[in-house]
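Changelog-adjacent note: as of this version, every example in the card shows the full chain rather than a window. The one below runs 216 residues end to end.
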Amino acid sequence: MKPTHHLDYSTLLAHAAGTLDEAFSVVAVSHLAVCPTCRAALREAEALGGTLLEQMPGADVSAACRTRTMAAIEGVVPPPPAMRAPPSDLPAPLARLVGARSFDEIAWKRKAPGVAMFDVTLPPGARGQLKLLRIGAGRAMPEHGHGGEEITLVLKGAYRDHMGRFAAGDVADLDEDIEHKPVVEQDGDCICLVATERPTRFKSLAARLMQPFVGI
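Full-length structure tokens:
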């Protein structure tokens, strides 16, 4: 797996700063788990943040506070060595959240002919929506835009739109100005992890009428 479509640098900066919405963070770390290019860019973003912190004026720390901090550090017990996880269809961060290691273990809900979905549960108070979407081979999604930010990570299969071909490991990091019509390739289903800020904007009347039932 060698991704050719990557996270936007602004997304990486927000992730490094800890300000990325929870749903988008799951997609980001799932892509980072398979993309060395974005991991290198994230290290640059973190280094930039460190440089900015170093330039900020310091604050005095009392001797008592320093003593308590050092005592706490010295009392930390290192965790046991991590056991190697068994092979999984899903990136490790997503597998832990979903509680499944295979696409077949996921409790898919059929939403339309050739379309199934699974709502990924986020912690209470988390921002954004996170879904797994499975679209059948050769099928096309209706042309649509986005009510806000949207990041889609391809986990299996591939689709094409006017921006190119998106295969396993690729991300489409889109804003509300982008409209597209993804078409899944003929050789198999396409499974994606999708984080959205607000509901999708479908262009056709039929798609808009179906939207409350499909849940996208």
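Structural remarks: The CA atoms of residues 146 and 169 lie 22 Å apart.
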